């Protein structure tokens, strides 16, 4: 997997927000155009990060691999559990944001709290599994032959 493939969800997230920017800016009311575009830009970054996290969660859930800094990966059950918790976090946080924008505050708070619990669970699974992470390329990466 190359860099363009791995980081393409960031680009997809930005493109999705830019495709609906007229609708977003129309919902912002009588703000100055600069403030409207600033909010669209911030939303584009948030959606791009959510898309990237969703891709990492799918990688953990379905390929059973979660990346760890330093060229290592969590594999197996820890990666699957962490991946599903990331997917749950992304889905519930989006649902909470939509519910909150529609003024359904109690349901938004429940979904948001559940999303935070899923993210906290991911943190526990991830840091519990880091000591068992295996090197991605073994010793070949450091050979000088």
Describe the structure.
- This protein has 145 residues and is mainly α.
- 72% of the residues lie in helices and 7% in strands.
- The chain has a 3-stranded antiparallel beta sheet with strand order 1-2-3.
- Helix 4 (77-101) runs antiparallel to helix 5 (105-129).
- The longest helix is centred in the N-terminal third of the chain and has 31 residues, at 33-63.
- It is flat, with a radius of gyration of 19 Å.
- The two termini are 25 Å apart.
Output the helix-strand order. HHHEEHHE
Biggest sheet record: 3 strands, antiparallel
Helix content class: over 70%
Roughly how many Å apart are the termini?
Answer: 25 Å
Main sheet strand line-up: 1-2-3
Features:
mainly alpha, three-stranded antiparallel sheet, 72% helix
Short note summarizing the structure:
The chain is mainly alpha-helical and 145 residues long. The protein has helices at 3-19, 21-27, 33-63, 77-101, 105-129; strands at residues 65-68, 72-75, 134-135.
List the helices and strands and how they pair.
Blueprint: H1 3-19, H2 21-27, H3 33-63, E1 65-68, E2 72-75, H4 77-101, H5 105-129, E3 134-135
Antiparallel strand pairs: 1-2, 2-3
Helix pairs in contact: 1-3, 3-4, 4-5
């Amino acid at each position: 997997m190359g860099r363009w493939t791995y980081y393409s969800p960031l680009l997809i997230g930005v493109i999705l927000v830019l495709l609906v920017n007229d609708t977003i800016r129309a919902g912002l009311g009588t703000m100055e155009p600069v403030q409207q575009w600033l909010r669209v830009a911030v939303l584009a970054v948030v959606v791009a990060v959510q898309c990237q996290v969703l891709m990492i969660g799918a990688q953990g859930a379905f390929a059973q691999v979660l990346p760890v800094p330093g060229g290592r990966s969590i594999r197996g059950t820890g990666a699957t559990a962490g991946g599903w918790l990331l997917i749950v976090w992304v889905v519930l946080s989006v649902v909470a944001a939509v519910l909150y924008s529609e003024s359904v505050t109690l349901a938004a708070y429940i979904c948001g709290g559940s999303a935070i619990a899923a993210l906290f669970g991911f943190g526990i699974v991830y840091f519990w599994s880091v000591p068992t992470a295996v090197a991605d390329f073994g010793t070949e990466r450091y050979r000088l032959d």
